[in-house]
Design a protein that fits this description.
The complex is a heterotrimer. By secondary structure, chain A is mainly α. Helices cover 72% and strands 3% of the residues of chain A. Chain A contains 9 helices and 2 strands; from the N terminus they run ααααααββααα. A two-stranded antiparallel sheet of chain A has the order 1-2. Chain A is globular. Chain C has 2 domains: 5-105, Ubiquitin-like (UB roll), CATH 3.10.20.30; 123-251, Alpha-helical ferredoxin (Fumarate Reductase Iron-sulfur Protein, Chain B, domain 2, Orthogonal Bundle). Chain C is built from 8 helices and 7 strands. In chain C, the strands form 2 sheets. A 5-stranded mixed sheet of chain C has the order 2-1-5-3-4. Chain C has a two-stranded antiparallel ribbon with strand order 6-7. The chains are: A mainly alpha, B alpha/beta, C alpha+beta. At the A-C interface, α2, α4 and α8 of A face β4, α6, α7 and α8 of C.
Chain lengths: 232, 657, 253
């Protein structure tokens, strides 16, 4: 069996979902860690420095390409798997079987779609102005100078974006989708790559639920913090 | 006189000599030879797989949707083998002896000895296939004891030994299907054997999905179609288990041997009402710890727990102080029936006795308490601990009981009653498992050969697999070696055409009766007749009445049965009608056989022939033979006798007092 | 024990054959004892249909003691009905109450085409086993059963997976119609025994390939299969299958 076939069989496709999912989970850790710098109460200085590091050094930029590929693969594969799985039952049930599984486990595609919609908004809010500012009619970010280096003021951008209560609400709702997506996705990914030992599975499950609560909570607190002026 | 083709020589050497001298078919010729296997239980699946491995072109048939469903799967307890892993004195001879004695000296010595000889190979083969037998902590195979023996020789896989063994054979079968050596015909039912020049050369099968009839040629036809316990309507058999394949063979000239030898298992969940469709067995192991009783007063309607100790009749312990609750199946069953018939039965139907675990719970609780050093434990504490122990040992059985009855057997005594479980009778076969029709073989429960008048626990699985894995591959070759000179016969041969036409006509006749009564209602009535008159105890007058009743029922069936639906479609009612029609005819023969056998032995108890204290009275002088019946016309059979010669074992009276 | 009798309404899927289109038909069944099994209740209905000249409802069943795996039926939105760890044939009418409406559907999956009414064709499972669900050992090749000790825990775990009865409830329960629980039970049964070792890699790869060919969906670890399984086969087996697959795929020559 070729490697190609190994990743295109039903189990292989799930392996792709799992590996990209775990990669995205790691990204979330980094993203949340960096963004947590807003709470340094230094008017965003630490945060802007960190963002500058991510935007100007080679390694994070290369990883960024990987990230986009990963997200892309996760989305495409996710939709394909979902559509394919739906096609396996042409005539559905009159009464659906809902007791044996969690609703969010059955709704990964919907949660994922919500996240995709959020992602587009999120990229429009922060990534495009930062990376593509000045291209076409995309407006760049405000900048400031520190020790002779020009920095994007992403902090100020966040402050501006999160003054709109509707945006804040959408971000918080997206964090909810993320929480449920992770509640299933985290432990599912590890099952898919073959963790079957009961003890490890118990550990991974608890970490997964903890992760699914803490990370989205941290993210949700960011727009809230700005909106209610909890950061200085 | 029937020729059983038992090889000459010492009992120990017969099978070895046979294998050393039997004729062989070379591999190139095997590839050209088609063999038909009907039924895919332990006997059929193991035979089809083994013959496929040898290179024969096998066609396997089963009526279920998959070969894995055959009723062998329901066997709970285990499989015997003379391995002597326990160092407790087991040997081939001892297994052979126990089986002959358990069968009340009505089985053929040479066959049973061969069965004991190959029993060890079965375990090895199954282990190699990946059957997950129970193991000890050291990693070696575990054994348990079973009724009728003094050694531990029963191998098991929790309470699902039959399932695991069948899955092993099924997987071996599917492997041969994948390799192209076996063609599987699921949802097909054999409806006739095709005979050409006196030899079985094929079958007519009905595709149960489309209703089409198919003609299949084979150099040999192997019937591995199980027993006929469903003639009683209520039995522990699967709903689809039927006699049709062996009965069609019988109608084509094969002799049916000892049909009246049926086994009634003492511990089943009793009938709850007229709606009941089948009975569920509770493993025999429950009698190890449970005490069986009925109230001392007739028609006592008090709840079991309200009946004080001195008003209970532990009738097995009373009648058989030496063996108590552990008497063999036939004895325990008859004793329960005797009490219920005398008016002491319990439950709403009054057709049940209590199987009580209260004493066992208390006993285990006390042991547990002293194990934990609790010498002043209260009665309540002891009972809690005792329940835990019982749960560990019998939890799955107690769960099953409560699922079916809705009662909690830890609190209330279970109600049990005997039920039809296994049929020792079947097609007459010689040492090579060939019937008197050349080319037609019967394996497993479908033949009569190894269990005499009563089967010991954990022996049915052994026999099915012995026949399929280790006997038929040799004996079939011995017979097919001469067939290589005969070309395959095309199914356009007039004999095939005629057989197909006959089957089609029978189906059309059945369908066109268009009467008023359902197939099921006839089956129920047949079952009642057989159960009442040819069940746990029989007598001349009853049997004669039963024969007349069955003949009348047959007439009524063929003039008033109603089969809905069409012939050429999936029509389970039509399938059932075909089967019930055959059961009716078999039922009559059972009674004829029971009437002929003027003695009591094993599962066959004739009320006229009993000792003064009500035990079975054998008549070795006049009835130490196999009764093989040949059909000679409607309601007519001719008896052929195969004398049973005991060269090694001296028959004696069984005594359990 | 007190007998309770009840009257029920049934909504049953009726379909003449594989090619016909089906629909729900409503039936009343009266005077049903709570001691009956679910299939006996259907027997009562069928007897009534036969005597009134209608066609009885076709449904698969055989052993009626919960082990052959032949019975199916998707009852009120759950394979094998409301009880846990139970087959339809062992479901008793105590589970329902007077006046209930019970909806009965066949297993729904394109890989299990309908034969008639509630009967489906599960031949795909046999073909998955044919792809490698066995140990290639011919009769007569075996060594002594005790020549290869097997750790008791491994033997017990293997047995727990081997308990699968091949009924297809996992497929019926899965929103993706995936056969992964069935497949993984067989792979786990054999992968945990030394006898399964020689064919360990080819087995899992070939069986997965066959499952895909049969038209089952993929596993998204929702756990519905485990909850519906009458033999409580653990979903951990699916994780084990994934491990076996990954291992085989990465190391296969």
């Amino acid at each position: 069996m070729s490697f190609k076939h190994m990743f295109t069989s039903s189990v292989g496709k799930k392996l792709v979902m799992a590996f990209t999912g775990i990669f995205l989970i790691l990204f979330l850790v980094v993203h949340a860690g960096l963004n947590a710098c807003i709470w340094a109460n230094d008017n965003g200085l630490m945060f802007n420095k960190a963002a500058h590091f991510m935007g100007s050094f080679v390694v994070p930029r290369v990883l960024e390409i990987g990230l986009f590929l990963g997200i892309f693969l996760h989305i495409i594969q996710g939709y394909m798997v979902t559509l394919e799985n739906r096609s396996k039952r042409s005539v559905g049930y009159a009464v659906n079987y809902s007791k044996g599984s969690k609703w969010y486990s059955r709704s990964m595609a919907i949660l994922g779609t919500l996240l995709l919609m959020f992602l587009i908004m999120h990229i429009y809010h922060f990534w495009t102005p930062s990376r593509l500012g000045g291209v076409g009619n995309i407006q760049g970010l405000k900048t400031f100078e520190l020790n002779g280096t020009e920095y994007h003021n992403l902090y100020a951008e966040m402050q501006a974006v999160f003054q709109n209560p509707l945006v804040v609400l959408l971000y918080v709702l997206a964090c909810g989708s993320l929480a449920y997506h992770l509640a299933h996705g985290f432990q599912s990914a590890f099952k898919t790559i073959g963790i079957h030992n009961k003890r490890y599975h118990a550990i991974i499950s608890s970490i997964g639920y903890g992760f699914a609560i803490l990370i989205p909570l941290a993210f949700a607190m960011m727009p809230i913090s700005f909106y209610f002026n909890l950061v200085k | 006189m029937l020729n059983s083709k038992i090889p000459a020589g010492n009992l120990d050497d017969k099978w070895v000599d046979y294998k050393g001298h039997c004729k062989l078919v070379n591999p190139a010729n095997k590839r050209k030879m088609e063999v038909i296997v009907v039924g895919t239980g332990l006997a059929g699946a193991s035979a089809a797989a083994s013959l496929g491995e040898l290179g024969y072109k096998v066609k396997a048939f089963c009526f279920q949707d998959s070969p894995r469903r055959a009723h062998s799967i329901a066997a709970q307890g285990g499989i015997n083998a003379a391995k002597n892993y326990q160092n407790d004195g087991d040997s081939v001879f001892r297994l052979f002896y126990d089986t002959i004695k358990g069968g009340d000296y009505r089985a053929r010595e040479a066959n049973v000895h061969r069965l004991a000889e190959v029993s060890g190979n079965i375990i090895d083969q199954c282990v190699a296939q990946g059957v997950p037998f129970a193991r000890e902590y050291g990693g070696l195979l575990s054994n348990r004891s079973f009724g009728g023996t003094q050694v531990q020789r029963t191998f098991y896989a929790a309470g699902q030994t039959g399932q695991q063994l069948l899955i092993g054979a099924y997987q071996a079968l599917e492997r041969q299907v994948a390799l192209g050596n076996v063609t599987m015909y699921a949802r097909h039912e054999m409806l006739d054997v095709v005979k050409i020049d006196g030899k079985a050369k094929g079958i007519i099968a009905r595709n149960l999905i489309t209703g089409e009839l198919e003609k299949h040629f084979g150099y040999a036809v192997l019937l591995c179609t199980g027993g006929y316990g469903n003639v009683f309507y209520l039995s522990t058999n699967a709903m689809g288990s039927n006699v049709s394949a062996t009965w069609k063979a019988h109608k084509q000239g094969a002799y049916f041997a000892n049909p009246c030898f049926t086994q009634i298992h003492p511990t089943c969940i009793p009938v709850s009402g007229d709606h009941q469709s089948k009975l569920t067995l509770m493993s025999e192991s429950l009698r190890n710890d449970g005490r069986i009783w009925v109230p001392k007063a007739k028609g006592d309607t008090r709840k079991p727990n309200e009946i004080p100790e001195e008003e209970r009749d532990y009738y097995l312990e009373r009648r058989y102080p030496a063996f108590g609750n552990l008497v063999p199946r036939d004895v325990a069953s008859r004793a329960a029936k005797e009490r219920c018939d005398a008016g002491y039965g319990v439950g709403t139907s009054k057709q049940a006795v209590y199987l009580d675990y209260a004493a066992a719970i208390e006993r285990y609780g006390k042991i547990e308490a002293s194990k934990q050093g609790l010498h002043n434990a209260s009665k309540e504490e002891i009972i809690v601990m005792g329940k835990e122990v019982v749960k560990e040992k019998y939890g799955n059985l107690f769960d099953m009981y409560s699922k079916i009855t809705g009662e909690n057997p830890y609190e209330v005594p279970m109600r049990i009653y005997p039920a039809v479980h296994y049929t020792m009778g079947g097609l007459w076969v010689d040492y090579e498992l060939q019937t008197n029709v050349p080319g037609l073989y019967a394996l497993g429960e479908a033949n009569f050969s190894d269990h005499g008048a009563n089967r010991l626990g954990a022996s049915a699985l052994m026999q099915g697999l012995a026949d399929g894995y280790f006997v038929i591959p040799y004996t079939l070759g011995n017979n097919l070696a001469d067939e290589i000179y005969n070309a395959p016969i095309p199914t356009s041969h007039p004999a095939f055409e005629a057989a197909e036409k006959e089957v089609a006509e029978r189906i059309a006749t059945l369908k066109n009766i268009n009467g008023k009564q359902s197939v099921e209602s006839f089956h129920k009535r047949l079952g009642k007749i057989i159960w009442n008159e040819c069940g746990m105890s029989r007598n001349e007058a009853g049997l004669k009445k039963a024969i007349a009743d069955i003949q009348a029922l047959k007439k009524e069936f063929w003039s008033d049965v109603r089969i809905p639906g069409e012939i050429n479609e999936y029509n389970p009612e039509l399938d059932k009608a075909n089967r019930v029609a055959d059961f009716i005819e078999l039922g009559e023969l059972m009674c004829v056989d029971a009437l002929n056998r003027n003695e009591s032995c094993g599962g066959h108890f004739r009320e006229e022939y009993q000792t003064p204290d009500g035990e079975a009275l054998r008549d070795d002088e006049n009835y130490m033979y196999v009764a093989a019946w040949e059909t000679t016309g409607e309601h007519q059979w001719q008896l052929h006798k195969e004398e049973l010669k005991y060269e090694v074992i001296k028959p004696s009276q069984r005594n359990y007092k | 024990m007190a007998h309770n009798h009840m009257n029920l309404k049934l909504k049953v899927w009726r379909q003449k054959n594989a090619n016909a289109s089906g629909a729900f038909v409503k039936y009343d069944v009266n005077d049903i004892s709570d001691e009956m099994s679910f299939l006996e209740m259907l027997d009562v209905l069928n007897e009534k249909l036969i005597t009134t000249g209608e066609e009885p409802i076709a449904f698969d069943h055989d052993c009626r003691e919960g082990i052959c795996g032949m019975c199916s039926l998707y009852i009120d939105g759950k394979p094998h009905g409301p009880w846990q760890a139970n087959t339809t044939c062992q479901l008793h009418m105590r589970a329902f109450k007077d006046g209930d409406t019970i909806t009965i559907e066949p297993w729904r999956s394109n890989a299990f085409p309908i034969v008639k009414d509630l009967t489906v064709d599960r031949g795909a499972f046999d073909r998955i086993i044919q792809a490698g669900g066995y140990v290639s050992v011919n009769t007569g090749n075996a060594v002594d059963g005790n020549s290869l000790p097997i750790n008791k825990d491994d033997a017990d775990a293997s047995f727990a997976a081997a308990m699968c009865i091949g009924c297809g409830a996992c497929v019926a329960a899965c929103k993706n119609s995936s056969a992964m629980l069935f497949l993984s039970a067989k792979v786990s049964h054999l992968a945990q025994l030394p006898q399964g070792e020689p064919e360990r890699k080819s087995r899992v790869l070939n069986m997965v390939a066959q499952m895909d060919k049969e038209g089952f969906g993929s596993c998204t670890n929702t756990g519905a299969c485990e909850a519906a399984c009458p033999k409580e086969i653990s979903i951990a087996n699916i994780a084990r299958l994934n491990k076996e697959y990954l291992r085989a795929g990465l190391t296969q020559e």
